[in-house]
Amino acid sequence: MASSFPFTASCFFLFALVIFSEGQSSVPALYIFGDSLVDVGNNNYINDCIFKANYPHHGIDYPGRKPTGRFCNGKNSADLLAEKVGLTASPPPYMSNTSDLFLEGASFASGGSGLINSTGGFLRMCMSLKEEVEYFTALHDRLVQQFGTTRAQQHLSKSPFVVVIGSNDIFNYFYKAEIRVVKTPDQYIHEMIAILQGVLTELHNLGARKFVVAGVTILGCTPALRLEINNQECNADVNTMVTKYNQNLVTMLARLQSDFNDINYTYIDTFAVVEGILQNPTIYGFKEAKSACCGSGKLNADMYCTPFAIFCRNRTDHIFWDKVHPTEATASIVVDTLYSGSQPYVSPINLQQLIAL
Q1: Is 3 in the active site?
Q2: What are the pLDDT digits (tens) for 43-66?
Q3: Out of 35, 269, 322, 332, which one is annotated catalytic?
Q4: 339 and 355 in contact (C-beta within 8 Å)?
Q5: Is 36 a catalytic residue?
């Protein structure tokens, strides 16, 4: 019994440092949920998942120039968020060590993930959002067991919970005719919103008090969907559905805050941010707004970025890395807006203001 005391005491000391240190980080931790936009490598550890980014040319601009499982040329939004709030490192993939305490947070995000459980099914065993929350629940229980309810709650209440999800569900709706046969766009959106509301409520019950929720981006203007239009313009039907989903999301978040008056949140209208970039790319330093940097064929969108794909020399010229994912340069603009931007792009407050509460 005596031999375990130094270990336990050191754990409490470390935990106290994480909670109360002011100079190094503005938050104790980041807990990130969602899809490939914020996956930092979880799919690498899911053996049956075929949707992975642990091969070239992914990571060509990431420190070390190695693929890490990020669907990006360099850092993705999870990495950039961690830098913004001053964490010592990006939240690691939870699946890399499912027994760790992850005192500075973790990414539970899984490429291919969706709100609806079946969304990632065609990618074989990639995690749904429901499964991501189940893994967080296990982590929550370990934190409570190690540090007690009060200390764990203090830690979690100050830590932003970031949710970036929904794109794959909407892709699924348009790519799978069997879904459209049984559900109208409005019915499908209602299902998505109901699931997300349930997830946010569950996270609240587990101690989350500060949420960062991203609206779905302008999917109809990705190279993948431009490719399906003869003139390579944006897919208006997809963008209309995304807009409706985002409108319902904003309404749901306001309702959730009224139901739980201890919740605060930041919503980022990713659609509007990226739409602005697409409309005026040169203002943001981009030269190519339609084609992907890495891929093949028309718009470099006939295939995902693989070791056999061609890729552009200057990634900062491109808005899109592959046929659906943004470059680090684009993600950086989105994260900058999230952190210190103003309405109509972020509401009701930005991340910097959320952290200060």
Answers
A1: no
A2: 999 988 889 999 999 999 999 999
A3: 322
A4: no
A5: yes
